[in-house]
Amino acid sequence: MKPPLLLIGQGSYEDNESVEFGRFVHRLRCRLDRGAAEVSGGYIARARPRLRDSVASLVARGHHRMVALPLSLTGDLRADADTLAAMTREQERHPTLTCDYGRPLGSDPRILALLAERLADAAAEVASLRLVPAAAGPLDDEPERIEIGETAVVLVGDGSTSPASNADVHRVSRLFWETHAHEYMTVETAFTSLTPPGVPGGIERCRRLGARRVIVVPYLLFAGGVLDRIWAQAMAYAAGHPDLDVRCADVIGDCEGLADVVVERYEEALSGITW
Hints:
- The chain has 275 residues and is an alpha/beta fold.
- The protein has two domains: 5-106 and 254-271, Rossmann fold; 109-248, Rossmann fold (3-Layer(aba) Sandwich), CATH 3.40.50.1400.
- The chain is 42% helix and 15% strand.
């Protein structure tokens, strides 16, 4: 039997994020069950199941080697102090435990392709579903056509105190523009908190560049409190700028495309591929 896959979440007080995390763990269980590998998931803090409980359950079932993979788009596990500290504590609790670590999900081409799908969905929304100021009436005339070259994209990361993590989001924005969004006016980078520019600042930059439509793309795996803040900030900006069409794309979410990337990271770790 192959070593189990342990998916690590940072933790959130938001039920929505925990539910979607749980659904994704279940999806991976269904995928890897055919390969005789167990899948478990746990949070470092706040939400349940806790990482320590998931590890203890795996060890109790006879597993002393596992592949650990943080479910995060930003940062490098080798520089992620919280995750490394958490796993160090687990190895101290279970001295026979050894762990292999999967590569970050980050700028994998399939992640960029999933972002492009979410962008395309938002661009295709009918007028009644887009983010518009409250003053706009439901019976307004058919909106004026806006070309793709007049549309800008704001890729929004969670934001970190780590300059390297924030720089990684900027890097992904550039990769995304060149590989999937080159027909758009630009792809700007913004953050929800901790570091500038915020969502309003990112949208404002696009407006000053001449954009008539801005699509906000969350660089997030699952829905939750961070997505709520992104939407709230985007809607607040739209309410004050009725001349600008502001839309918001969905998160990547629990899907087969994301599962493909995680399974590959798992198989890489088993085969000893280093990064």
